[in-house]
Structure formats: C-alpha cells, structure tokens
Amino acid sequence: MPINTTPALNTKRTLQIEDVGMVFPTKRGPFVALRDINLEVQRGEFVTLIGHSGCGKSTLLNLVAGLTTPTSGLLLLEERELKGPGPDRGVVFQNHSLLPWLSCHDNVLLAVERVFGEDENNQRLRNRTVAALELVGMGHAAAKRPHEISGGMKQRVGIARALAMEPKMLLMDEPFGALDALTRARLQDELMKIVATTGATVMMVTHDVDEAVLLSDRIVMMTNGPAATIGEVLRVDLPRPRDRVALAENRSYVQYRKEVIDFLYTRHSHVEKAA
Amino acid sequence: MRTFIRVVEVWVPGNDRTMLEFGAGLYGTASRFGVLSRQMCFGRGEGLPGQAWEAGRPVVLKQFEGSVFRRTQAAHAEGLTCGIALPIFAGDVLTSVLVLFCGDDEDHAGAIELWANDPAQSKDMLLADGYYGTTADAFEFISRRTAFRKGHGLPGLAWESGLPVFQEDLGKGERFLRADSAVKVGINRGFAIPCATRDHTHCVLAFLSAMATPIVRRFETWLPDARSEHLHLVGGFCEATGTVYEGGGNDFLEPGQGALGRAFLTGVPVLSSSAASEPGLVGVAAGAAALDTMVALPVLRDGRITALVAWYF
Amino acid sequence: MVSAVFHSPRDAALIPETKADAKPTRTAAYAGAAHPAPAKLPRDPFDWRGLGGRVFPPLAGMALLIGIWGLLTANSTTFPTPLATFDAAWKLFANPFYRNGPNDQGIGWNVLYSLERVGLGFGLAALVGIPLGFVIGRFALLNRMVSPLVSLLKPVSPLAWLPIGLLVFKSANPAAIWTIFICSIWPMVINTAVGVQKVPEDYLNVARVLKLSEWKIATRILLPSVMPYLLTGVRLSVGTAWLVIVAAEMLTGGVGIGFWVWDEWNNLNVAHIIVAIFVIGIVGLLLEWALLAVARRFDYS
Fold first, then answer.
1. Phi, psi (rounded to 5 degrees) for A73
2. The pLDDT of residue C27 is above 80
3. Distance of residue A23 Cα from the nearest chain B Cα, in angstroms
4. DSSP secondary structure code for residue C222 in this structure
5. Can you tell me the mean pLDDT for B210-220?
6. Nearest-CB residue to A97 (from C9, C17, C202)
7. How far apart, in Å, are the Cα atoms of B236 and each of A179, B90, B166, C208?
8. Per the CB < 8 Å rule, is A99 touching C19?
9. Residue A83: enclosing H or E segment and its boundaries?
10. What rounded mean pLDDT belongs to chain C?
11. Range of the domain at B91
C-alpha cells in the first residue's frame, strides 16, 4: 500500500503562522524567545528554519507541533487553529525517540494503530507499517530492537513512524544532527526521494547551511535570540531532483549558500555570552 | 570622481495640474540632455515622470528603447543607462516627481532596487524591480528570490524606521565581481530611502554602488525636531571625510532656510548648484569637501515630512 | 513503484554504518553478495587460566576462613570446630523435610516458611508500593503530599514496626508479614516514582504527538520505561526483607529459619546456628541472583 500524505482540503496553504510570539516565565523574569513570527507554508513545500543556537527555531517547531502553546498569535493548519499536538503533524526528533522495548516494526505500529486503529483491521495496520518501513529502506530490519541498529537506521525508523501516520505536515528538528557526515548525506538524499514520492509538506530545523540549500524550497533565516524573529526568506529555485555532486559546482547553489552564510555570519554573527 | 547618480531633475505639476513641468535640474556633464529636458512637459502617464505619477509609486526604467521614454537618444549620448522617477505625495496629492538618471559602464558599477511590501498580502518585502547594469547577474539572482522582513536588510531597515538608511559597507564585495577585472571592487555602499506611495504599500528605493562609483559624494540625514521648528543634522557619510556625525546643539536650520529649509516647507525637492553658499553647516561642509551641487529631498510618511536627505555631488 | 526509488537494503551494506556499541563491522563484499558468510575462526583453546583466576581466589578465601576458624576453636569447649559443624550440617541436610511437631520441623520447611512470609509481605508491598510510586511520580501535587511522609518513615527500622503489627494483628505470622511489608515498600515507592519522573521527555513527546490516552501512556510508555528502576527497587527491598524476616522471627517465634536459630540457641546448639548462618546467606544470595537475572532481561541497552 503506497504511503500518501492526507489529501488536503481545497487549500494550498497548509500552515499559517500569524503574529506568533513566545514568552517563557523563568526565575529571572519573562524570557522572550520569539516575537512577530509570520509565515505561510504551501502544500508540498519544503521549508527550512535556520539560525544560530538559541534563535528559537526549535521553539517555533514545537509551536507548530503543538507541543507548546504560543503566548501570542495564532497557528492555523489548513485553515483550522492548532490546539495541541496530534498525528496530523508527524514529528521527527533529533534523538530518534524510538521506544527501546519495542521492535522497529512495533514502534511504527504504535503510531499506525493510534491513527488508523479504529477504522482498520490488524492486517491493514500491519500492511501500513511494513510499507512505511520499506519506504525508508528498513523493511529488512523490522524485527530488530533500536539498540541493535545504528543511529542512521534509527532515524530512518523515526521518519517511517512519522510518515506512517499520513500527517498533513512533517516536522523535523535537526533530524540528522547527531549523525556522521556520510550517513547524514545519505539520509538527506533519501529524504528528498521520500518527499518527492509522498509530496509531503515539510518544515525542518537545521543549522547546516548546505543541508538547507540542498533540501529546501525556501529557507527561513532567523535572527539571534532573545526575541528572535524572521529576518529574511530565501526562495531556492534549484530544479529537482537535486544531485549534491552536480550542485557543488552550480553557480546558483554557491550564491544561495553565500547569501545564507552572509546572513548567519556577517550580519548576524552569534555572540557567545560570557559564562 | 564620478558618481553613480549623474542627473537629478525635479518636475512639478503645472497650475492646472494636468501636466508636469520642468522645475529644476542638475545635469553635471550631461548639459545637452539638460537643454532638451527643460523644454519638455509630461501629461499623466506620459514619459518617465508621467509614468510615476500614474503608477503612484517609484518607477525604474532600464530599457529606454520602446518604452514611454521620450529622451532616449539624448540619454544614450550622455551615457545615461537607467532612469528612476520618484513621485512625492503629500497625502493623496502629488507635489512633485524627482527623476534621477544613473550611468554605469565597464569601469563603474551600481545597482538600483525597488522593494515593495503590500501589507494586505504578506509581511515580506520583495523586489519589485531592479536595475543591475554592469554588475554581475548573481546579485540580481539572489535579490529576486529574497524576501526581507521589517527591520532586516537594507530595505527592511528603511521600511521599519521610515528614514533613510546608509550602509557604508554592505559586506557583499565578493559577489559582484565581474568575470573580467574591469570592475576593481564589488558593491560596497548601500543607501535606501522609503518612498511614499498612493496606494499605501510600502516602498523602499535602494541604491548600491561600488567604491569606484559612489552613489553620491556626500549625503546627510536631517530630522525635524518634535515641534517641527528646527532641522537637525543627525548623521551621514562623505566619501572624502568619512562618517558625518550629529550636528551640535546650535547647528540647526529653520524652515525656509536654505535648500533644506525650503524643501521642508514646501515638500518639494530643492536643487542647488552652489552648495558652498548654503547657510549654516551645509555650506561649511560643502565648501570644505569641494562639493558644489546638492539635492534636498523630503521624505514623507502619511503626509508629514519625517526626514530630509541631502545629496551632494 | 515506490520500492524502485530507493536504495535497496543491499546498497545500505556497501558503506558500513557503525553502531553505538563497538562490534566488529562486517567488511562488505562488492555488490552481489548481500551478506558475506563469516569466516570460520580457529577454535580457541580452553581458557584454563581465566577459569583458575575466577575460581581459585574465592576457594582460597573460604579455605582461609575455615582454617582460622579451626585454629581458634581447636581448644574451645563452647564453640564448635569446622569439622563438628560440618558433621551437624550433614545430619540436618540428610533429612531437611521432616515434621515432628509444630516446633520441630526440618530445616527445609523452616526456610520455606520464611520465604513464604517474605513472598507475601513483598507481594503486598509491590501491589501497594508500585502503583503509589507511579502516581506520585506522575502527579506533582500528590508527590508533594506523600513525599515528606515517605522521607519521615523510611529511616525507621522495620523492627520498630513489629510491636504495632502484633498489636493490630494479634498473631505472629501476620505481624511478621506486616514488618516485611513496611520495610519493602519504601524502596519500591521511591524508585518507581523516580523512574516515572526520569522517563525521557522524548518518549513523552512521542506520546503527546500520538495523543495516547493516559492508560496507554502508563502501560506502553511509563511501565516499560520505569521497569529498570522498579527492579532496582525490588532488588534493594529483597535484601532488606530477607534480613528483617530472620530478626522478626526471632522476636515472634513460631516457624521459620529465624525462629529456628533462636530455638537452637535455647538448646545451646551452636553448630546448628552456624549452619543456619550459612543457609540464610546462601538463600539471600540466590534471591539476589534471581532478581538480577530478571533485571537483565529488562535491560534495553
């Protein structure tokens, strides 16, 4: 059974973030993490949030995931206000968060059961699980436990789990940050293929410039915290499918890269606070 | 030193407000162009000034041939390659149209960008039009795909503050080097002014230039005080002397005093070809830096003059 | 076709991915051989030295102890020699399961009775303590209500609870079980609560994204995650429980290994007491090992 993303309503705007701000109460007083965040994500778009550490990009992703509620502003998923987390936004965490006492198959099944369990019988649920694992190339390791597979494979299972729910949006928080460069490169290529196949709408957090330019349709560049906001949005017009080897010499790719680096390191260099 | 902006004209509505007539002009070395221009007048929609009037927002004209432009041959003869018309509104009423002509060639590089934000559509400020002349394509390529938010980037800063913004070093040097070595350095200076529009979108006109071709020789920002009784110098930049600092407490201009004072009073740009004889600070600085022509340009927002920009050539 | 788009699992083997724990990676053959057969290694010769290293020192220690014991008791009239003790042990274990009356039963029965009481007290403590631990770990308000109480009662010696048990239950057996219950429950509550609090945020985020019901969170996420902590609590409790039962039985009488020790003291049969010491120690050790084996089964790393 092929994996699709849920066919949306007749709307092209999957996500709207309107005037969102986030203030955290701390012992030392209120901490303004985000202010004046406005963004729209179209269906099928791949959007990257990039910025220095502490710029609130993970906070923003958590707001979209519904794991946090904004202190001001509104988030709309397909024109409906977000109220808390849910399987319509599949989240891939940086720490794969696979439950260690379940096999890969059962980890994905947990999600599948939750979303489709009421309407479908066990066989169909199993089919979905197997399809999701095959989509990420982990069909052969379905019975293995997380401690028996490598970091890259764990992350693939995490992606399978998120996609198996057929979410409206895929949210990824530095999903490849904990992996070595070669594994990261391979997973990026696979992610592009998966996204092309499923037509998923993706929002990803990263601090890797090359990853952002390679994968995104748009790069959202955030200023430094506190009170971080969106500074610049760059539309990446490179044709798909994108080949990293060919792109390395592509002039446009180099320009895009330079613009993002300019933003991060020339105009918004991260000032290390004294400990 | 040649500047990127080569010609400045002010066109004002005639008495019956159906035509734009020649108000004033600084032509530098393009004197024949000046002679031709003084004889012209434009109806709404006609020619470059008329176009800006009709559109209600700045117009950038990059291609003279086959356009509404009526002085193509003369412009080419003088090496003018791009024209920009800024309509200046007091509320809904057009007070004047400022027209600039720039010229760049192999040895001199610059770019002019018109950025616009439609608040009804989004919070992004996008490139509406741009003239990139002899600069490399890369700059235009990225600019066309970038959206700035309020307060970010050169246009974003002008948008947020509603005041002119100058950046001495854009840090974009490398990007604008051309394939051959004709252009010695890349784009390094940036200057942005917010422009009033009739339809309440936000517009910013950004001038970017290379070191060999500064946009202007000196520029200054003057602000009226709270009760609009005096004009104070708040800062600027001079190619000859570097950063221009705030004027002292006693260095101010009154409304009507000198080119800046008159621009403040009338809301119409004022041109002067003897800057050294201007009153107060202006004359002193101009004389010291051997600058003789100046433009006093009012920046309006919601019908009020929020700042005045002085350009010296 | 979806499957045509991706790397096949075979390609995944071409560049070996290193795993978290260091195990030798299989060097991949070229495309064509999916899983290269492991080369046959020569069999290692039997590791006599390793075995000797592990077995010899404990035996030597034991022998030393017995030697010293023998030396010290060689001329004693009250304290039995190792040989005499061994003799007594032999007789006892020849017939461990005889019954001559309620106060005279085989050592096997006594051990079993004690274990039964420990089992009951322990089981009750688990039944009450683990859910309580869950609840105070999960809900902060209850935690604040119950924690001070636990901290106050925890350091109290279980034997101090024995009189209360006798008062309430009016009989030795329930009182002993009560004492076991009260001494085993604290580690279970505390460890379970800590385990629940230490459940990684990520797992809870997974639960939130999936919008699992509270029950599902408890059973599919909290319980397996807490299991290692829980089992540590249980292991700690078992050691104390076994200790306490012997003392409690000495005080209350009736049946059990503790009672038997006291009875043999009344009979001035020191050799039997020494045998009892060894038996208690061995049973305690076996209990530890059993629980360790269970804990290892639930270790997911």
1. 90, -175
2. no
3. 21
4. I
5. 80
6. C202
7. 50, 25, 7, 55
8. no
9. none
10. 79
11. 1-103
For an interface test with A, give the residue of B121, B132, B146 to mutate (most A CBs within 10 A). Answer: B146
Put simply, the chain A residues between 241 and 260 with a CB less than 8 A from any chain C CB are: none
The highest-confidence range among A9-13, B175-179, C219-223, by mean pLDDT, is C219-223
The nearest CA of chain A is from the CA of C131 a distance in Å of 21
Element housing A151 (H / E): helix A151-164
Give residue ranges of A with CB < 8 Å to any B CB: 38, 40, 223, 229-237, 251-252, 255-256, 258-259, 262, 266-267
pTM of the model: 0.79
Which residues of C touch chain A, with CB atoms under 8 Å apart? 2-3, 5-9, 12, 15, 17-21, 200, 202-203, 205-206, 208-212, 220-221, 224-225, 227, 298, 300-301
CB contact under 8 A, A231 and B148: yes
> Which residue range is the domain that position C276 belongs to?
99-297
Q: How many helices (H) and strands (E) does chain B have?
A: 7, 19
Confidence of residue C12 (pLDDT cuts 50, 70, 90): very low
Residue A53 has pLDDT above 50, yes or no: yes
Query: Chain A closest CA to B202's CA: distance in Å?
Result: 17
DSSP string, A173-234: ESTTTTS-HHHHHHHHHHHHHHHHHHT--EEEEE--HHHHHHH-SEEEEE--SSSB-EEEEE
Provide the pLDDT for residue C301: 59
Write down all domains in chain A, each with its CATH number in brackets: 13-88+169-267 (3.40.50.300), 98-166 (no CATH)
Residues B22 and B69 reside in one and the same domain: yes
Q: Which of A3, A93, A183 sits opposite C202 (nearest CB)?
A: A93
Which residues of chain C are within 8 Å of residue A191 when distances are taken between CB atoms? none
| Residues on chain A touching B174 (C-beta within 8 angstroms) | 258
Are residues B245 and B189 both part of a single domain? no
Give the pLDDT band of residue A75 (cuts 50, 70, 90): very high
Average pLDDT, chain B: 83
Q: Pull the structure tokens for residue C82.
A: 């190792």
| Residue scoring higher pLDDT (C83 or C283) | C283
Total domains present in chain B: 3
The CA distance from C224 to the nearest CA of chain A, in Å, is 7
Question: Half-sphere exposure (CA, 13 Å, Cβ side) for B273?
Answer: 8
Q: Residue C91 falls within a domain, yes or no?
A: no
Number of domains making up chain C: 1
Judged by 3 or more CB pairs under 8 A, whether C touches B is no
Nearest residue in A to C299, CA atom:
A101
pLDDT band (50, 70, 90) for residue B135: low
pLDDT of residue B171: 63
Q: Are residues B66 and B110 in the same domain?
A: no
Q: Per residue in B27-62, pLDDT tens?
A: 888 888 888 889 888 988 888 999 999 999 999 998
Contact A255 B172 (CB under 8 A): no
With an 8 Å Cβ cutoff, are A193 and C12 in contact? no
User: Among residues of chain C, what percentage have pLDDT more than 90?
Assistant: 1
Work out the number of other CB atoms within 10 angstroms of the CB of residue C85. 22
A87 touches C: beta carbon within 8 Å: yes
Looking at the fold, whether B199 and B233 belong to one and the same domain comes out as no
**Residue C57 within a domain:** no
Q: Three-state SS across B112-162?
A: EEEEEECCCCCCCEEEEEEECCCCCHHHHHHHCCEEECCCCHHHHHHHHHC
- Any domain includes C280: yes
Residue C30 lies in a domain: no
Task: Give B296's contacts (C-beta < 8 A, 6+ positions apart).
Answer: B258, B259, B260, B262, B263, B269, B270, B271, B272, B308, B309, B310
Question: Residues B198, B264: one domain?
Answer: no
- Same structural domain, B92 and B3: yes
B179, B196, B215 — which closes off a domain?
B215
Reported confidence tier of residue A266, pLDDT bands at 50, 70, 90:
confident
Domain of C123: which CATH number? 1.10.3720.10
Residue A269 has pLDDT above 70, yes or no: no
Least confident stretch, A93-97, A118-122, C96-100? C96-100
Coil vs helix vs strand at A65: helix
Shared domain check, B204 and B113: yes
Which of B193, B215, B237 terminates a domain? The answer is B215
CATH code of the domain covering residue B183 = 3.30.450.40
The answer, yes or no, to whether residue B186 has pLDDT greater than 70, is no
